[in-house]
Amino acid sequence: MAVFTRIVLLALVFLSGCNWLDSDTPATNLADLSISVGQLEPAFSSSTLAYTATVPGDTDSVTLTLSASYTSDTVTVNGTSVDSMSGSISVPLNPGANTITIVVSSADEARTQTYTVVVTRTVPAYSVGGTVSGLAAELTLQNNAGDDLLIAADGAFEFATPVTDGGDYAVTVSTQPAGQMCVVTNGAGTIAGADVTDVAVDCVDTVAGLFVDDLVEGLVYWCSSGAWSETTAEGLFTCTQGDEISFWLGSNELGPVATSSIISPHNLFPDDSLAALNLARLLQSLDSDQLPDNGVIVIDDTLVALLPQGLDFSLPENEFEQAMSALGISLVSLDVARQNLNEVIAQYVPGNTAPIAEAGSDQTVAAGSTVTLNGSGSSDADGDGLSYRWTFVSRPAGSSAQLLSPFTIGSSFIADLAGSYVIGLIVFDGTVTGYDTVVVTANDGAGLPAAPQGLQAVAGDARVTLSWTPVDGATGYMILSNTTGNVTDPGWVRTGPYTGTTITFGELTNGTTYYYWVSAVNASGEGPMSAGVSATPEAPGANLPAMPDGVQAIAGDSLVTINWNPVSGATSYTVYWNTTGGVDNSDASLAAGSSTGFTHSGLTNGTAYYYRVAASNASGEGPLSAESSATPVAAGPAVPGAPVGLLATAGDGEVALSWTAVSGATSYTVYWNTTGGVSTSDAYLDAGSAILISHTGLTNDTRYYYRVSASNDAGESTLSSEVSAYPSAVPMPPD
């Protein structure tokens, strides 16, 4: 019994030493823990549950080696089981802080202990810098809207604050140097494991100028070198020397034009003084301070926001005013805007005298008649050349009258409705403008004389005599003449009134054809014009025109085209023909007018046709030309159209090309290059009749450009649209 008791006591002592019978037994824990890179902070102790470690940025994983206090314990690291006695595990790391969780559990899972290790993978930082060139004064740069860097001379620069790997950088100009503009290139990007050294800041001298229509403040402008800004309170803009400049009203671009010390609406519309003055009207009407006499136009952004895209500044004066009124913008009149603009320009371009516009006398006409306008009375005291611009100031309600040739010294229109037409004439000497109006009153024809009848023109030596039948109630006659035959052409001459019905015009040019129209006038106004007539003065005894030479008959499908050389002094040609040969002027004839070619159509294929040509003038018909013949034949196949649907698909060292078959084509040719703008002078691939071909043996990572043509016996088509592809070891999608 004593022996048994002694054994039991020894067993209890043993169990007590192993903590199996201790109700206060602590949770299971780690006996050891180490890390392969860096070191644990604090040093490992079984009772310390939280650790940190720092590793270099290029460390993408660490290995933890550990053991538990008891062989029966289990261990997991981030949920993965690890040998509890001298086990190890590799843990991947992301840049920054990485939390590793180690859980030790007793065999019966009644007790657990959790340890954490926060491993920080440092993120490297890199410098941002580059070079400055062309700098003549102090410049301030910023990176990411801060880290100001003052630079006073050309050379390399580097910001004081580095940027962490993977972070963005954005270099901008905070303060431009005096008299210069600096532009940053390669200024923005993402740090990719290396210092940035290729930011380039190029500085160039600037040119400053004024935008005037009064001085205009707040007008948005863009320089072709890339700068956007607004004109200052002094109307000042600044661009790089050599730039072009555009101004913007809302989404409407005005320009571009070359930069200069003074820019006015006339610079923006050099070929249309009406558009320039409509712009001046609009700018003067957008003045937010409503102080027209203070010399400054302050652009009202609220009104600018009302402007639609695509404003047509060339609209007639009244139509532009109506368009702006519909937007809630009340315009000053064109003449007021013109005078204001002239006065401002004169301050900066002294010594120029404004031209004088003369739109002609007021007229009274019948509704439906053609009204001719003449600005030949306009003048310029400085002898400057003038450009002309006619515009409607007002028209009768519902009128759709349009001015013909509005950019010439003379214009015309049809007075389609009865009522008053007010037409403005703007003359421009290259700097400033003159302005005049003419009123045309169109009535319903009551009381107006009728159009003259029986007008005849008889040519003589350097003269033409006109005669016509008298018109009842006419008190005089007006005569319109020109050398073009078109009553609406601007080069006409209007004379009268004449009281007789016969008049001779002398000192004309022999051999020139003159065209004439006559209208009658009375107290009610001017009636409609007569039908036109023409005559060609000739010197006495003038020779007949010479025989045409170079006559050539060219056969086509059911037609023959006859061409010949022009004959000096000839005013018309006649083509004589038959199907037997030996053509003379008793055979059938074709009137060719003044043309030196004629197409005789509706012919029988396979039949020979013979031709001779005679030239005529006021003296009569000259001798016949030599005979020429041709036999019409049916047309062969037509040249095929250009292929469509060209598709280029890149592969590894090759490009697959396909397109839609072209009707009538018998073969295809693929032209290609690596620069774009493919033409038939480039290298080519003969595709035969296939519509699918592979271009092999290509260089990967190089873009190839292609166009394809179709051919048959009639020839080669024009080229298709251009496509491109980018061969790569990793296939790229087609363009």
SSE topology:
Blueprint: H1 2-17, E1 30-35, E2 50-55, E3 61-68, E4 74-77, E5 80-82, E6 87-92, E7 96-105, E8 112-121, E9 125-126, E10 128-133, E11 139-143, E12 146-151, E13 155-158, E14 163-164, E15 168-175, E16 180-185, E17 188-190, E18 196-211, E19 215-217, E20 220-223, E21 228-230, E22 236-240, E23 244-249, E24 252-258, E25 262-263, H2 265-268, H3 273-285, E26 296-298, H4 301-304, H5 317-326, H6 334-348, E27 363-366, E28 370-374, E29 387-394, E30 410-414, E31 419-428, E32 433-443, E33 453-459, E34 464-469, E35 476-482, E36 493-498, E37 502-505, E38 514-522, E39 525-529, E40 533-535, E41 552-555, E42 559-563, E43 572-578, E44 588-593, E45 597-601, E46 609-617, E47 620-624, E48 628-630, E49 647-650, E50 655-658, E51 667-673, E52 683-688, E53 692-695, E54 704-712, E55 715-716, E56 723-725
Parallel strand pairs: 2-8, 10-18, 18-25, 19-26, 27-32
Antiparallel strand pairs: 1-3, 3-6, 4-5, 4-7, 7-8, 9-14, 10-13, 11-12, 11-15, 15-17, 16-18, 18-22, 20-21, 20-23, 23-24, 28-30, 29-31, 31-32, 33-34, 34-37, 35-36, 35-38, 38-39, 38-40, 41-42, 42-45, 43-44, 43-46, 46-47, 46-48, 49-50, 50-53, 51-52, 51-54, 54-55, 54-56
What does this structure look like?
By secondary structure, this protein is mainly beta. Helices cover 8% and strands 43% of the residues. It is built from six helices and 56 strands. The strands form 15 sheets. Strands 10, 13, 16, 18, 22 and 25 form a six-stranded mixed β-sheet that branches. α3 packs across α6. The protein is elongated. Residues 1-24 have low confidence and may be disordered.
